[in-house]
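Exercise 7.
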Amino acid sequence: MYSEYYRPGSVEEAQSILAKYKGKARIIAGGTDLILQLKAKTVLCDAVVDISSLKELRYITEDENERQIRIGPLSTHTDLAESSLLKQKCPLLCEAASSVGSLQIRNVGTVGGNIINGQPAADTAVPLIALNAACRIVNSKGNHTQQLLELYRPEGGTTLDPTSELLTGISFSLPAGAGSAFGRAARRKALALPVFNTAVVLVPAADRNSITEARIVMGPVARTPIRPGEAEKQLLTGAPGEEMFRKAAVLAAAEANPRDSHFRGAAAYRKQLAEVIIYRTIKKAWESSMEKVENQ
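Solution. The predicted structure, written as tokens, is:
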């Protein structure tokens, strides 16, 4: 599979090793995806650079001044699922992380790996996009920040290069009073990839009679997670309620473009499923926002 194994003590050392191999080394953390890819020889490399011990990349914190949550890419799905901070501030992320694989997978699989693997239905990436998360990336030229959704290539996968770049941080801000929810359907309740998943974030107006900001993210109904723009616009018109939510769900499902799949089902079925789950998730997100307003 590979001839050399490295376990660097810092991000800088990891970058140095990647530079030495000039595209022939790969970063590994939890390894729940990469090990399978190496065994199947769908990924080839001369060395792996194991960053799993870098404590500087494993954290979940809040900057109260900026109302910003910061998550280290080596945070595991279990870290997210059990975080008291995330349960309080954005429970949709806890719920999404709880749905990933088995307990064993959640204990080693990382949120960074979930992002970098670039799957359109990645259960933690979908809510992070709805939260408008940004990623901090380090390479030989320095570091830069990019919106998570912008990392996805139209043809699938991400622009982040695991042979030369490291994801070092994920961050997002929480608008006051924002409500959120995560929806998912799979062939069974556990140990199954999603047939469909969605995340919704809604920001109510001060008078609670309208929505000032709406984000819906869906997967896997295209090569990347997608935001249905027309559905989001619908949620910004008029008074929030059953009729509006159902119209938005219809518009969102219309923008979904799933393919027929032996595993996930027929495209027509999945579009119908999307409409039902999106409606329920929008309603749940609105109820969440109302609870926050009442508790303020």
